[in-house]
Amino acid sequence: MDESSSLAEQAATTLVRSMASDDAPVWQVVLERFAALFGRAGHVAAAELERSRDEVVARPDLAVEAAGEWKPKLRRLVAADPGAAARLRALLRDLDDDRPRRDATNRIDGGVAGIAIQAGTIHGGVNRYDGDHVDFSGGTFHDRVVGKEEHHHERTRADGPGDAGERP
């Protein structure tokens, strides 16, 4: 894959990821910056970008199709305008700098009374149940989820030495 195709693919992926985001202010910046790459035809590009975004928001399964639509447009732009590649790289660098980092550290010092949830972004319902768990069945996680399950069993009077709470 040549450099312009690789750059176009990276840009199309970033563009569609922004389209699928529910962050309207970020999308507005992305829309304006990508449309500006097309110079005098920027208003046409902006209208096409909005149409693509409307489709991706309505039907997320069309994201791959949208990326496939924008990759050749961006590749042709870079091929036709030597300065466009530098502007596109700068745009991608700026957008990457603005993206929240996935590496986060959560820490609890001391005891917790009740339930403690440590997470980045959780979309959807988080329902508390009386008991020993939190139901995330309505949630959508956008990165890997790592969980730790611990069981704390108290010894009862019926437990003898060495039984450690085991029941027959």
**Helix share bin:** 40-55%
The count of β-strands is 4
Number of helices: 5
Low-confidence stretches: none
Largest sheet: 2 strands, antiparallel
How much of the polypeptide forms β-strand, as a percent range?
A: 5-15%
Oligomer: single chain
Mean pLDDT across every amino acid position = 76
- Overall form: elongated
Q: Tell me the distance between the termini.
A: 65 Å
Computed over alpha carbons, the radius of gyration is: 25 Å
Largest beta sheet: what is the strand line-up?
1-4
Region (Disordered): 144-168
Structure commentary:
With 168 residues, the chain is mainly alpha-helical. The chain has a domain at 3-98. The chain is built from five helices and four strands, in the order αααααββββ. It has helices at 3-20, 24-36, 42-58, 63-80, 82-98; strands at residues 122-124, 127-128, 134-135, 139-141. It has a two-stranded antiparallel ribbon with strand order 1-4. A two-stranded antiparallel sheet has the order 2-3. α1 packs across α4 (63-80), α1 (3-20) packs across α5 and α4 (63-80) packs across α5 (82-98). The radius of gyration is 25 Å and the shape is elongated. It starts with a helix and ends in a 27-residue tail after the last strand.
